[in-house]
Amino acid sequence: MEKNERLEALTSQNTELRRDIGLFGGMSIIGGIMIGSGIFYLGAYVLQRCGMSLGLSLICWAVGGLVSVLGGLCYAELGAAMPRSGGMTLYLNEAYHPILGFLYGFSDWLIGGPGSIAAIAIALPTALRAFTDIGDMGIKAIAIVLIAILSLYNCFGIRLSAILQNISMVAKLIPILIILFVALLLGQVSPTLGIQPPTGPVSVFDILRMLAFAIVASLWAYEGWANINVVAEEIREPHKNLPRALFFGIGGITILYVLFNYAIYRVLPLSEIQTMLNAENYYLGTAAAQKVLGNTGAIIVTVGMALSMFGALNGCIIAQPRTYYAMAQEGHFFSSFKWLHPKYKVPAVPMAVQCVFSIILVLFRSLDQLTSLVIFNAMFYYMLGMFAVIRLRRKYPDIRRPYRVVGYPVVPILIGLVFFGLLINTLVEDPANALLGLCVPAVGAVAYALFDLRLKRQGSSQ
Q: Distance between CA atoms of 239 and 232, rounded to whole angstroms?
């Protein structure tokens, strides 16, 4: 009976939270977090890893988007079947063991979530340095104010949060689309889109090796789509809107990324791109905008970058506290984190703690080192999330699954192996930070044991 009651709670759409996020709101959360300043410079890294082959780089962006779409559809099955807060934490709890879900959430709570928020908040005013004389202390002050104001704003209900996210999503797309269409229309370059590098033909094996290496870079531009599952309990008709938001959100961004990079190639000759990269200037999007629109282009790019980062910042502040709320609901976390504001139905306590942690991290100098500590673990948990689709079908074969991932079981296995490849790549490329990142789940394991002991004592006293 206990198992049946748990399954009923997992699959029920009844909730204390407010289901105020519609389809566009879900897409805005996905796009708001995924589309940041990376659209203006990540293409340079992809192109370098493709041996400066323009055609191969565009294939890389398309394949990276396809991998993300398929990964999103795997998550769509999980979220539509279990429309509860928590996302990855919930799925790891049910597919494997609660300690895995806890370790993911603990790493995210301690460093991952606040570190990402702090980094974005600092990056936003930094992008304005080209037009204003802002010192380091001024940038940190602005970052702290942004975090505090957005955290407070998002305490007034998910409906207001979704409205702001929708507005920022539209606002960030306007400058990006202006650059894209102007570059496509006014570009004078006819790019060569062959898959062979300009330095000379290489073997099929070398092409596949370059493609695989470049896809790793492109996938970072698609990072963030899984955050929509964290707020599944606040999505209207999640069995319909969650899969649609993931498919249309990630699919639309894939098209945007491919067209944006093609538009750059229409404006900047390959020789000019090579000169920029030799000078370690990776902002190809900025250079393309300045070439076709002059100083106006530079302003549009700066505004676009600021709006993109604002949307990503707000999206992270919305999503992360729902994970900590779900952990508290499961029992292995602070009891206060499952308290909801009586009027706005928002997990206000984890929102406030996240705000404090983020502000503390803003005061540290090397935020990149803090956030890189959790990259290795994140890839591990994403891999487990893909395989959770298979495990949960076997563990709970009878629960209602309004959406089933296409190509099962090939797609979950394939995308799981892709994340395994990213895991190995991170270990090879950055072994020090990858191994240091293991310290976080080690501390988390101790914390889990303490929370578990508390639960057992509470159970024995009843």
A: 9
